[in-house]
Amino acid sequence: MKRTDLSMEVCPIPLPPRSSVVPTASTSFQRLPASPVPSGERMGTSFTRKLQVVIVIDQKVQKNLKVREMALKDVQNVADTLNVNLTQIDFDRLDFGEANALDTFYNADVALVDVTVQQQQPSLCYHIGVRESMNQSYNILMTYIAPDSEYHIIDALKKTHAHLPMIVYMKFPESNTLQSYDRNMNISERKGEQENNTRT
């Protein structure tokens, strides 16, 4: 199979380029005159609310489940530190089209989408495309690289989602912790480190 064919399987919907400044942890909005605001929230002509972040990460598929649970916990710790609201959405609810799940995902300021489970990638890609068609362009991909991960799958993801930030994470057994890297890392080099640590 050609690499281009694989890319289409990974993400059948082309995504538009990102174009805006990434939002900060506190986002300011103009107050609408018709919408009453509690006195405790009044700050002149505008008010500030917490950044709304959503994460879609599978917590059911057994393969590498413990690692994804660790990743979710780490993201929650970061969200708590930054004082932002983090909402976790189950993939099945999003894939089924549950109204509350769709509303939360499409309207979040930032979406973190874990694409570790290969079978879920086309559906997740579709929903990212819908967000970007709504000008919700702050989307970040996450993926776990296991010792048995296939290079061409990761390469296809990086190529197909070239305009999106991507966080790649690995687990090192000796410390039982996760290490994350950006999309520009040398995958073969990092996997070599991971395999060496696993043998020792």
UniProtKB/TrEMBL annotation:
It holds the Pfam family DRHyd-ASK. The keyword ATP-binding applies. InterPro entries: DRHyd-ASK, MAP3K_TRAF-bd. Keywords: ATP-binding, Kinase, Nucleotide-binding, Serine/threonine-protein kinase, Transferase. GO terms for molecular function: ATP binding; protein serine/threonine kinase activity. Residues 74-109 form the MAP3K deoxyribohydrolase domain. The keyword Manganese does not apply. Residues 124-188 form the MAP3K TRAFs-binding domain. It comes from the Eukaryota. PANTHER family: APOPTOTIC SIGNAL-REGULATING KINASE 1, ISOFORM C (PTHR11584:SF394), SERINE/THREONINE PROTEIN KINASE (PTHR11584). This is Uncharacterized protein. It comes from Ancylostoma caninum. The lineage of its organism: Eukaryota, Metazoa, Ecdysozoa, Nematoda, Chromadorea.
